[in-house]
Amino acid sequence: RNLKEFIRCLQDVPPESLLYHAQRNGISTWLMARGEISIAKRLRPYRIEDFDSTTKLRKKILDVFEEVRMERLRGRVVQFDPATVNMDRFVMRIGDGSFGGKGRGLAFLSNFIENIDFNAIVPDLNIKIPPTTIIGAGEFTAFLEKNNFQKSVYDEKNYEEVRHQFLSARLSDEVVRKLRQYVEYMDSPLAVRSSGLFEDSLLQPFAGVFATYVLPNNDPNPEVRFDQLASAVKLVYASIFSPTARDYFEAVHYKIDEEKMAVIIQKLVGQKTHERFYPHVSGVAQSFNYYPFSYMKPEDGFAVIGVGLGKYVVGGEKAWRFCPRFPNLELSSLGDQIKDSQDYFYAVDLEDKSSSLIDGGEDAFIRKLDISEAEEDGNLKHCAMVYDMNNDRLTTDYSIRGPRVVNFGNILKYDFVPLPHALDVLLRYFREAMGAPVEIEFALDLDAAPNGHPTLWLLQIKPLIRLETHLDVDFSEVKEERIVLKSDKGMGNGRYEHIHDIVFMDVEKFDRTKTREMAVEMAELNKKMESEGREYVLIGPGRWGTRDPSTGIPVYWSQISKARVVVEMGLPDFPLEASLGSHFFHNVTSMNVGYFSVRRTTDLEFVDMDFLQSQTPV
Fold first, then answer.
1. Would you tell me how many other CB atoms lie within 10 Å of the CB of residue 76?
2. CATH 3.30.300.30: does it fit domain 270-378+414-466?
3. pTM above 0.90, yes or no
């Protein structure tokens, strides 16, 4: 009656009957009559004489059916069934409902990659997405209903109580059954990511607001792996109700009860070395560059890469920034490269059997390691160069003693892997396909795949908002004495006429050991400004939104959400590295917030602190 039933019956047809119909082209005729023309045409040329047994004949027919079935599924999101569908090739779904923002992006990537022959465009590099399974947002709604959370969880302000309640609750029978299947087929590290309906949207990105959990997923007992995976899914659900998320919803005037959460389960990209797991290279790339220099154009885009898990890059650490179209153009001097080189990285701890997600949170199984350990693993060979002090230059000769500078010289300068070309092509194609500037997250595996090439894994894609308001300003008419702040690195182009407040850190009293306390004070001040309906210019030393309190003030976006202009300022003993490539920076761009980076190393950059100090505090 249909193709599926035909395949099932074909496996049981007696050899004599199979030979009888094959000799008379009965199989291809039956297929042709039912519209299965592509299968019929592939089978028609074969003759009985081509096979020395009915077993091989039957196998050939079934292989042709399977080839066509896989071609029809190419680029599509398919129902979760690892027994009949290759998990490495298709994005799978569990349950009903929306895929959420990240899920939609991954479905787009899957379709795009499967339907374009990138081997012809970038022949020496595989381009893929990791094995991915999406739990539809309908399961989130069912989870709340099944456990009677529809009302209570929205009123509960104690986030830890919400997390414990969610962990004690039960997922649907279908999800439980399929997650058990999942861990039977998958025993390598996983990333369990949020994918809210509003996440990665054009209007409000919700970047970095919800949770992502990384699991070793290597316990020999599948039941232990299932418990960890189910717990991670529940805690991703719970992250909608975190204080950070609640404050963000309030800041952007969205209703929290309108958000629904899909969950992405993605195989983590990387290599196992000495009981730790991490990729050679991870990074983000954007198709629009707000900081072009030399002969770069904004449309040439940029990328930021680092060794180890992507947490390092999106956290705004000292990663390597370059333009994919002009990878040899360097942004900094040799001295700055040595001083600002990546000195640690993140990896999954595969030996940890005691940590729990409820106590350790998103970083329960993630470890911060010195970059020298990556060299011991043999993973710095193509990612770092050596500073030759005798000749004051960088070299790839690892026999020389000297500082390791993580600048990915073999990849960017000597084209060991065509990463820049691949990113340039992908950013251009994705920008055209989505009709907007885009950001992609990726990981690079330098080890050769079966075809002999390394692999670029695409982990995520999201649209970026460009600021389209154009104003012409004649700076020659602006009197120097009226300028409070000047920078040659500014982002945004617009006019804010309703701002009357400036919030700034007193640089004379600034204590870099108390930046966490400053973040708490900023949150309180921001709430006061919000309650009074006032927005402000925010000025402070170091990076705003950093996760490392020694490099700036570790606020969450919700703690400074009323700032319309953000200024990051360097001090003589507190050098500045701007918040590029971070979730914080993404919120700045997408929310149309003005941004300035003032290093204060030249006369072209300054903040008039005397003027600010002379003002009467409100």
1. 12
2. no
3. no
